[in-house]
Specification:
Blueprint: E1 3-8, E2 16-21, H1 24-37, E3 47-56, E4 66-75, E5 78-85, E6 96-100, E7 108-109, E8 129-133, E9 165-173, E10 176-184, E11 188-190, E12 211-216, E13 226-232, H2 236-248, E14 258-269, E15 272-285, E16 290-296, E17 307-311, E18 318-320, E19 340-344, E20 363-364, E21 376-384, E22 387-395, E23 399-401, E24 422-427, E25 437-443, H3 447-459, E26 469-480, E27 483-497, E28 500-507, E29 517-521, E30 528-530, E31 550-554
């Protein structure tokens, strides 16, 4: 929900007034105010909406009445909100002032310790007034991801933990899969059970526990501060996480399925209530890749020991952030962003499974049911079981064809003995008319050719293969027809060089559906292969090259065929 809240609290049934103004005097006053606070905008108001809560009373209290106001001002393609505060008495109810957006991609809470101070606070040098531009996302949204709400807050006591947070998609942590996570008050995450050890152990600890510790120290939020968490499985936060990780790991292609955000907000150390430390850990969960982002705000010094980093069972993998003092965390980084550390922690193949996708070099398919890409001329011919093709079509329903586009939504089971050559990583009834992205790119130079050559030579070591062309088609979070909530991500890669041709099929998270075919087929089914899974959700966990989620085939001729069928 998008919301603008000059003072959100429990107010009794009281009168409040609202009106939209378009008269010259009000518009001129609003124009002058906004130009004063935002002089670079050259703003002219054409609409002012005013809502006033005048002498309203809090529910079930005898406190004085409150008066406040919000203005929504728009014009010149820009939008602003202005909060005005008169008398604001204290209330025993929870109260918040600011604004928030869907998925909290942009939000602001007016930083007052007591709501009575709203009357004497400002961000525009006018006491009791706050003004914000709200038409676009801010260019700098800061390090911290949006924090959790009060319903996702840890118990406010020392040495406590959250309940088990169940993940819809497992978190891969150096080869182990976890579906439950605990946010522990002493500054760390654990998986199998909560962890109450207050005294931090230096990494490598050689323990029997996997642990992620943005700042393991002795904290006590029973006095002040807040520890919260949130699990996000859709929306803009996933896009933000993907953009952040791709910035630091540009060699990977991936789709983010879940983001877990755990935040320690202004928490003090034990027996030192005057200290305040703010930090955050973000788990970015893909199917075959996992990343950890650690964000540091103000970190107070303490005479107590501390540990920041991560460790695994028997310390087979670990990292300790190299700072001499905990307050130096705010000024340190391994990604050239002060206060941020980012790590890949899945323990999978060095380059991941998916080839890169989602960049500006990708050509996107139209968003339509049963649609297709336009004809794509190939930069180099692709040999497919004796046929040489110089064009290709990426069809929305999960397949590639060569002579013409193909809109058939129900799969023909292989061997189909048809008149069509087809490569089908996941042929089923896909409908990306409202969400999901289908894209493709061609590469004929650069490091991706080296990567393709290494992959093919690993699986076919006797060929001494050198790639000269790569074609990548990716279906990213596409839903099925009649099931908008489904999201499947998969990819097919064509690789050629010296008249040799190969196909790689990659599978991220695949949601269940009926009527599916995965494999390839040729004219008259002289060569075909059907990936042998009884449940398509298992595509992500199967392989013919011992790399989970990857299937690889040589497809240039019929000398190494997987299926033979006589029409």
């Amino acid at each position: 929900m998008d919301i603008v809240a000059p003072l959100w609290t429990d107010i009794d049934n009281s009168d409040f007034y609202f009106q939209e103004f378009s008269g010259v005097r009000v518009l001129q006053r609003a124009t002058n105010d906004i130009r004063q606070y935002f002089p670079q905008t050259n703003f002219t108001a054409d609409s002012v909406f005013v809502c006033t809560w005048d002498n309203v009373r809090y529910y079930n209290t005898s406190a004085e009445n409150s008066s406040f106001q919000v203005l929504l001002i728009s014009g010149s393609g820009l939008s602003f909100i202005v909060f005005n505060y008169g008398n604001i008495p204290q209330t025993e109810h929870t109260a918040v002032a600011g604004y928030d957006t869907i998925d909290s991609t942009s939000y602001y809470t007016i930083p007052v310790s007591n709501i009575t101070n709203l009357t004497h606070s400002t961000n525009v040098n006018v006491m009791g007034r706050w003004a914000f531009r709200v038409d676009t996302l801010p260019t700098n949204i800061g390090l911290f991801y949006p924090t959790g709400s009060s319903v996702s807050q840890n118990p406010c006591q020392s040495n406590a933990s959250s309940s088990a947070l169940h993940l819809q998609y497992p978190f891969l942590y150096f080869g182990r899969k976890y579906q439950n996570i605990y946010v522990n008050n002493n500054g760390h995450l654990t998986f199998d059970e909560p962890f109450y050890e207050r005294l931090p152990k230096a990494f490598p600890a050689n323990s029997t526990r996997d642990i992620i510790a943005p700042l393991w120290a002795m904290f006590d939020c029973s006095v002040t501060g807040r520890i919260s968490y949130r699990l996000v499985t859709q929306g803009r936060i996933l896009d933000r996480a993907r953009n952040d990780v791709q910035q630091y790991f540009p060699q990977f292609g991936f789709s983010v399925h879940t983001v877990l955000i755990a935040t320690w907000d202004r928490v003090p150390y034990v027996n030192n209530s005057l200290t305040e430390s703010s930090f955050q850990v973000v788990l970015v969960i893909c199917r075959t890749l996992s990343f950890v982002i650690m964000n540091y705000g103000n970190i107070s010094s303490t005479y107590q020991s501390f540990q920041a980093g991560y460790d695994t069972i028997n310390s087979t993998n670990y990292f300790s952030i190299p700072v001499p003092d905990e307050n130096k965390l705010s000024n340190s980084s391994n990604v050239n962003v002060t206060g941020r550390w980012v790590f890949r922690v899945d323990g999978g193949p060095e380059e991941g499974i998916f080839y890169p996708y989602g960049g500006v070099e990708d050509e996107k398919n139209p968003q339509s049911d049963d649609g297709s890409s336009p004809l794509i001329p190939l930069r180099q011919p692709f040999v497919y079981f004796g046929h040489v093709y110089d064009k290709i079509f990426v069809n929305n329903n999960g397949d590639l064809t060569f002579d013409e586009s193909f809109d058939q939504w129900y799969p023909s089971y292989f061997p189909a003995c048809s008149t069509r050559d087809i490569i089908a990583p996941l042929w089923t009834d896909i409908n990306n008319s409202r969400k999901g992205t289908i894209s493709s790119r061609q590469v004929s130079d650069g490091p991706l050719l080296n990567r393709a050559s290494r992959d093919i030579n690993q699986y076919f070591p006797n060929l001494n293969f050198s790639a000269s062309w790569v074609f990548i088609a990716t279906w990213d979070k596409v839903p099925y027809y009649g099931n908008r909530e489904a999201e499947s991500t998969f990819q097919v890669v064509l690789v050629s060089g010296k008249n040799l041709s190969f196909t790689l099929m990659h599978y991220d998270y695949i949601t269940p559906t009926y009527g599916v075919e995965s494999g390839y087929d040729t004219i008259c089914s002289t060569n075909f292969f059907l990936i042998p899974v009884s449940d398509i959700t298992n595509l992500s966990y199967t392989s013919n090259v011992d790399v989970m989620g990857r299937w690889v085939f040589r497809v240039d001729n019929s000398s190494e065929r997987n299926g033979i069928y006589v029409c």
